[in-house]
Amino acid sequence: TEDPKSAIAYCYNKNKRDSEGHVVTGTNTSRLNWYLPAIEELKAILVSDKVCATMKRMGKARLHSKGSNEWYWSSTQYNEWCALAVSMNDGNTYDFKRSYVGHVRAVSAF
Are 74 and 42 in contact (CB under 8 A)? Predict the structure, then answer.
């Protein structure tokens, strides 16, 4: 498959599709309603003990490792050319041009 062209496309593509390619809606599957979180949601995920415990219980990767220089895109626009991202090392917010390559953490309500 072709790589997504944006962080939002990556998150949207995680959604379950019907036979016609439309996103399935409802509550009876785990592949529903994936999206790119806003800046405040992303920062809350970073510090949430509940999210970290759930990910650990599911055997999923941690959001970050101490001392890492990784940052994750948010859906929050900074201006016409930039969007906001969060450093997983220190929780600070940065604005980057949308053409920069970074990490994406798709989220879904659970």
Answer: yes
Task: Kindly give the residue spans of alpha helices, DSSP state H, lying in the chain.
Answer: 7-13, 39-47, 49-57
| Count of positions (residues) in the chain | 110
User: Is the distance from CB of 67 to CB of 84 less than 8 angstroms?
Assistant: no
| Cα four-point dihedral sign 101, 57, 47, 69 | negative
Contact assessment for residue 106 and residue 14, using Cβ atoms and an 8 Å cutoff? yes
Burial 59-75 (b: 16+ CB within 10 A, else e): eeeebbeeeeeebbbbb
**Using one digit for the tens of pLDDT, what is the confidence trace for 48-85?**
777 777 767 777 665 655 556 778 889 999 999 999 99
